[in-house]
From TrEMBL:
Listed GO biological process terms: DNA-templated transcription initiation
CDD domains in UniProt: Sigma70_r4 (cd06171)
Transcription regulation listed as a keyword: yes
RNA polymerase sigma-70 region domain segment(s): 22-87
Keywords of this entry: Sigma factor, Transcription, Transcription regulation
UniProt xrefs under NCBIfam families: sigma70-ECF
Domain RNA polymerase sigma factor 70 region 4 type residues, every copy: 115-163
Domain of life where this protein originates: Bacteria
Name this polypeptide is given: RNA polymerase sigma-70 factor, ECF subfamily
């Protein structure tokens, strides 16, 4: 643990070797997060780069209280979400859709690579909401605050994401190829 403290302190001083070591130590974990929130591998790589730039610029704000890994994961999620907020206004969905579908929508019976590809194909607002709620365990209230939307929009976006995923999974089982 003292090695981590030393590494963080060296990064705070702007030490390039320490920054490279930090990247080597955490890039795989953070890339997994970026991949989960991105449309494809190239976009995930860009998001990883942006996340590390933010981590390096804000590392002096880490006060060695709580988990460093948790801190950099939070920065990574926030960096990616900020990028999407700038890129695309997450619009209000006015349709009322049932909030919850049965929990076993079939995506638990899919191999991870297939499920990830389906999630990556979702429109941004649905993909972000699905990942934050289902995979990261945020509440609709937290998601609406993070994405700058209403509580109802968060619930509706989750329901739509689940509906789209369910359709893709059912099409997969039936051997039908679906577009986007």
């Amino acid at each position: 643990m003292s090695n981590l403290v030393e590494l963080i302190n060296n990064c705070k001083k702007g030490n390039r070797q320490a920054q490279e070591q930090l990247y080597r130590d955490y890039s795989r974990i953070l890339f997994g997060i970026c991949l989960k929130y991105s449309r494809n591998k190239t976009e995930a790589e860009d998001n990883l780069h942006d996340s590390f730039m933010t981590i390096y610029s804000k590392i002096d704000q880490f006060k060695h209280q709580g988990s460093f890994e948790g801190w950099i994961k939070r920065i990574t999620v926030n960096t990616v979400l900020q990028k999407y907020r700038k890129e695309e206004t997450l619009t209000l969905v006015t349709d009322n859709i049932e909030d919850e579908m049965p929990e076993d929508s079939g995506y638990l019976n899919l191999d991870l690579a297939t499920l990830l590809s389906y999630v990556q194909e979702l429109p941004n607002k649905y993909r972000l909401t699905f990942n934050l709620y289902v995979l990261d365990g945020y509440s609709h209230k937290e998601i609406s605050e993070m994405l700058g939307t209403s509580l109802g929009t968060s619930k509706s976006n989750l329901a739509r994401a689940r509906m789209i995923l369910k359709e893709k999974i059912e099409a997969n089982k039936a051997g039908i190829i679906m577009e986007g």
